[in-house]
Amino acid sequence: MNRKNIIEQAIKGIDLISKLGLDADIIGFKSADKVYDLHAEIPVNTEVISLYKSDDEYIHFLRHDAAHVLAQGLTHIFPNIEFGKQFFKDTNVFGFDVFFPEHKFTKDDFPKIEKAMKDVVAKSDDIIRHVWSKEKALQYFPNDQFKQDIISNAPKNTIMLYEHGDYIDICGGPRGMNNSHVGNHFVLLDVQDSEWMFNSSKKMQRIICACFRNESEMKDFLMEYK
């Protein structure tokens, strides 16, 4: 199987699959220095190889999507919750910093949060990528202090966001095409104290989670974690 392609004209990954009749199981493409999800446009004259769920890079897709499934699930339980930045550690572990001072999260919250995450996955919402100007992004999140900060301090003049169902957030990707691929192989691990951008006056809580390709990987991880 030839996994290499040289891009003759700029094209989105999903359109490249259709144009060349490539394998529908491809989850993205990789050049010498960058990973492209299927939403992203691959520049002209770029040599890329196809990526599959069996490749090491897939965990980066899975973690990003699972992190935003976590965030979307949290909004269904705590509608006024605000989000800081994502946190990635090791291969499978990730977290999301949240601002919700009226509630101190504990492990007792984990069952209902995991259920909310599974409900999000079950809806099988398509994931849609947006690239907005800073001005549009600031206008879209007028009352979100953290997104206002992220957008205002972003080095580029455009902001990348991904939308699924009733949730939209800033994210640099890579992402999948539909939340269904996240599956139910995830587990909440811990809650830690955090703060916003090293500002000790803005206390946050970091919810730590891990996600996996399959049940076997999750069981092996949990045996070592305990």
Automatic annotation (TrEMBL):
Protein name from the UniProt record: TGS domain-containing protein
Gene Ontology terms for molecular function: nucleotide binding; threonine-tRNA ligase activity
Keywords linked to the UniProt accession: Protein biosynthesis
ATP-binding listed as a keyword: no
GO annotation, biological process: threonyl-tRNA aminoacylation
InterPro entries: Thr/Ala-tRNA-synth_IIc_edit
Superkingdom of the source species: Bacteria
